[in-house]
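Our consortium's second objective concerns turning raw sequence data into structural hypotheses that experimental partners can test. To show how far this objective has progressed, the report includes one record in full. It was chosen at random from the queue rather than selected for favorable results. The single chain below, 418 residues long, was entered without modification.
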Amino acid sequence: MAAVRRNFSLAAERAALVRSLKSAETNWFAMCRDFRGAGIHWSNIKAELRERKISAASWAAENAPVSKRWLDKYGEFATRRDEFQASWKWSQTLPYAPERRPGLWGCFDMMDAKSRFDSYSEARKSSYRHDNVVGTTVPNRPAQRHQEQGHNPIRLTAGVTLLHGDVTAMMHEHVADGSVDLAIADVPYFLRGPEVAQLADFNVSQAGKKPSFNEEWDRFDSIEDYEAFCTAWVEDAMRCLNGEGSLFIFGTYHNIGLINRICQMKSYTIINEIIWVQRNSRPNVATRRLQASHQNILWIAKDSKRYRFNHRLCKRSEYDDWVSKRNQPLREIWDVATNSHENRASGHPSPKPLEVFRRLMDVAGKPGGLLLDLFSGSGTGAVAAASWGMHSVSIEREDAYVQMIRKRVATEVQKKAA
C-alpha cells in the first residue's frame, strides 16, 4: 500500500526517489527494499501530478533519472510486495534458483518462476475421471454469463478445463470479459471449397493416393459463410482477452489473408506474422504445385500499447532452430518440425507440435495466467500450458476429439504425478 502523503513536497519526493534508486545498487536485500520505496515515491508523485494535470511522462523526462516505463515497473513492484516475499522464501527451498538474479527484472523473473511452478503443480493435481463434470464455472473465473447450450465445463485436472461445444457459444457462455491472458486459435483453414476439393482429390487419385485431409468441420458453403464464422469467434476472443492479452491465429494461404482483413477492419493491432517453417512437411504427391512447407501465425494484440511481450525470456531461451540464436532477439521465422509422433494416437489430421505452442507462450504467456485454446483438436494447448505454467480452458466441438483430449491430458499431464 502506498504511503500516506502529508505535507506533500514534489521536490522532496523527487529527491527521495533518486536516493532510493541509487541505494538500490548496494546489495540484494537493500535493493529489494529500495525498489519498493522507489515505487511508493513514484506512486505519490503520479497522484500529485494527476491533481496538477501534469503529464507523468513529461515530468519523468525532465526530473527523474530513468524513464516513466521504468518508474511504472517500480510502482508495480511496490504493489506486489507480498508476492515477492513469498517467491523469495520459495526460492530458498530450491537446490538452485536460476531466476534469482540482481536487478528489478530479476525480481519479476523470480515471481514469474514461482507462478509457473505453482500452476504446473496445480495442473498435475489429478481430479480427472472419465465422467467428471464440474459445476458451471471455469476455474478461478467468474460464473458463466448465461445458459444456452447446456454444456458444463469438464474439469480434467485442477488447472485444465475443457468446454465441449461450438467455440463462439462456449466463449459467450462460460468465459468472462477480460479474463484471458493468452488465446490461441488453430482455426479451420477452409482448405476444401467445392472446386478446390474436387481438383485436389482428382490430382491425388491420379497419383494412386487418398486425400490426406477431408474433414467435415473444415467445409463451408461459401467464402462469405467462412468470413462470418471467423468474424464471430475473433470478436468474442478479443472480448475475453484482458488489456495485456494476445491472440495467436494459425492459418495458411487459403485463409490467413481473409483473417488478416477481418482484424484490420475491426482495428485490432497486428503485431507480427510468424512464419512456421515445417522442415518435414508432407510431400506433394500430386506433383501439380510447389510443396507447401510453412504455416502462418498472426499475433493480434488487445491493446497496442499495453500488450505483454516476454522479450527477455525469448532472448535467453535455447531453441532448436537455425534462425533463432540464444542471447539474440527471437525472429519471426520459426523452424519447427511437425513432430506428429507426440500425438499420433489422437488420429487428428492436423496436429500441432508442443514446441510451437510453448514458443507462443514464451512470447506472450503469463506465468500463472489463463490460456484459452480455441478449436483445441488434439489437445496440444492444454498439455503445453500445463508444462509451461498456465491454467487453460480448451474448447472443442467434435465428440471424437473431446474424448481424445480427455485421454491425452490424463496421460501426458499426469503421467509423472505422484
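The partners drew two points from this record. Residues 128-150, 194-204 have pLDDT under 50 and may be disordered. The CA atoms of residues 224 and 245 lie 29 Å apart. Both points have been shared with the crystallography group to help prioritize constructs.
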